[in-house]
Amino acid sequence: MNLKENILEGLRSIKGNLLRTVLTALIISLGITALVGILTAIDGIQSSVDNSFASLGANSFEIRNRPLMQIRREGQREKRYKNIDFRQAIRYKATFADKGKVTLKTSVTGNAIAKYESKKTNPNTRLWGVDNYFLELKDYKIGGGRNFIKNDFEKAQNVCLLGVDVIDQLFEKESPLDKNITVNGIQLKVVGILAKKGNMMGGGDDRVVMVPLETGRKMAGGRSLNYDITTSAKNIYNLDDFMEEARGVMRKVRMDAIGAEDSFTLERSDSIAKSFDSITGSLRIGGFIIGFITLLGASIALMNIMMVSVTERTREIGIRKSLGATPTKILLQFLIEAIVICILGGLGGILIAIPIGNLIAQGISGGVASFIIPWLWMISGIIICILVGLFSGIYPAIKASKMDPIESLRYE
Asked: Which family is this protein grouped under (predicted)?
């Protein structure tokens, strides 16, 4: 028997034991679905994060009192410095006004309740005070109405921009524009609608009410607020030098002692994306281990089924050997049968895994993740299926090839 005949014989055997084959292939499919599905979801999330940070531009950086992303290890405390207050933020912005665009943002509260007539949002709405460059530097788009104007900032007008999640909770069929809502007991006029941004990096970018910076300070009721600063350089060929200049100004503003560490964090937008790369790398390893364990269990089940198949076909093996089939041909026959079952199961698992993985990515990213066809993981999945088939089928195939033809013919 040549290779083609072995494959055809394997398919005939599979057809003859269809139910057992389907159950075996289903086990393999579940393992491949777990492996490829998890890795597809991670790739989808990664592409969404990359797109989000690419839109911010490679020439911008953040100044905060804590890291935007920090992987905490056992025994380590989260690094957090004293708040960047309004005076410090304004002084920094004034210094860099002629060198680039600087925007300030303060989180007045992360658990605000917005009300309109008898409806209200969940107590997890974000209330942000922002200045004139915030939407531009943070890649927010106006989906309807207008942006804040100069008079809104200078007069601390009670106006606001709403994210789509807030609109969905307060306004079902009517436009929110020019309507008055109440947030934390203060009435605000809706002048603009924010286009959907998605919920990456912790979520909540669409669950937001934005007000002019001075309005946010007024709504804080005298509480000390913390400010985040984003700087975008203009025509800077060496961003690292520009960042060092910004670091020096901020140290002076914060009155950091000579030789002491910075009392703030300064991070490039693209470096934040690289930090996320390391996290997704760890997730990929974890996903691969989970999928591998599932496939290991499937391979053991397949080996058991192949052992049963060898026992059931003892007389068939004896007949084949009496007609001149060599032990190598018998070995290849059972080995190819195991591989064919694994490949069929693997193909089914891949077809299931791609939509599942993309749905997971869409759910986590708030519907902004790109649709991913993971060619690398698909090819890897098929290769793994072949290896599983080899692992599962080698022992039963060897056992079959070593059977004595006379004893096999006597088997009942």
From this structure: Belongs to the ABC-4 integral membrane protein family.
Which residues in 164-283 belong to E strands, given as ranges? Answer: 180-183, 186-194, 208-212, 227-233, 265-268
Q: Say which residues have a Cβ less than 8 Å from residue 156's Cβ, sequence separation at least 6.
A: 212, 214, 215, 217, 218
pTM, whole model, 2 decimals?
0.61
Residues shown for the chain: 412
Instruction: Tell me the C-alpha to C-alpha distance, in Å, between residue 48 and each of 65, 69, 370, 386.
Output: 26, 16, 6, 32
DSSP letter (8 states) at residue 70:
-
Q: Decide if pLDDT at 76 tops 60.
A: no
Given a contact cutoff of 8 angstroms between Cβ atoms, the answer to whether 305 and 337 are in contact is no
d(CA 303, CA 390): 10
CA distances to 146, 167, 274 from 143, in Å: 9, 12, 30
Helix (H) or strand (E) segment spanning residue 108: strand 100-112
Rounded Cα distance between 323 and 7, Å, is: 19
CA distances (Å), origin 243, targets 104, 172, 356: 17, 45, 42
Burial of 4 (0-12, 13-18, 19+ CB in 10 A): exposed
What stretches of 263-326 show up as alpha helix (H) in DSSP? 269-312, 314-322
Q: In this predicted model, which residue has the larger pLDDT, 198 or 344?
A: 344
The Cα 102–Cα 100 span in angstroms is 6
Tell me which amino acid residue 149 is. Answer: I
Question: What is the rounded distance in angstroms from the CA atom of residue 122 to the CA atom of residue 175?
Answer: 20
For the CA atoms of 402, 406, 408, 412, the dihedral, rounded to the nearest 10 degrees, stands at -160
Residue 85 confidence class, pLDDT cut points 50, 70, 90: very high
DSSP H helical ranges for 185-235: 213-219
Sign of CA pseudo-dihedral 88, 93, 96, 100: positive
**Residue where the block lists tokens 């100069």:** 150
Lowest mean pLDDT across 106-110, 122-126, 217-221, 282-286: 282-286
The 10 Å Cβ neighbour count of residue 71 is: 10
